[in-house]
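Appendix B. Chain record.
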Amino acid sequence: MEFIAIIIIIALVAYIVINKKNATKPASAPAAPAEPTQEENIKVTENLPYKKKLLLTKNEWSFYKSLKPVADELGYSVLAKIRVADLVEVIPTKDRSEWQKYFNKINKKHVDFVLAKPENLQVILLIELDDNSHNDKQKQRDEFIEALYKQTGYTLLRTSGTGDLKEKIKGALDLNKVCAE
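Structure tokens predicted for this chain:
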């Protein structure tokens, strides 16, 4: 909130300065170009602290290579690293801080893989690859995510590898069908 207020104040000051400069120029003088934005002020040659990285980890890539043919055979598309906030939304409340509290719980989380209908990308199954990163802290996150998906009607398949993947997916899809009835 403070950030937005600061941006508004900066924009207002810039507007006043520009109008003041334009008011003191003769009418025949061409208008000065608008003040550059903060992003434009960053020189292209400046070294920014970013580098390109791969979308999937080695474990996720290995899993994807096994998942893709199974999804193709079952007639589904595979999506990777989908934000939870793109799958569910917080029910609006009168108290903005209450809404923000719940949004913050999902904003920076993602599901590893999603199986979706190719014709409209309707989500059919969420897949979480449980690897070495699932420690005690991760277990707490997992419990929250499982409760969230259950409440919002998503089916989640947790797997630690590709063994019997097709059967696991079919079993989860059958469970999904039973829950929908």
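Further analysis of this model is presented in Appendix C.
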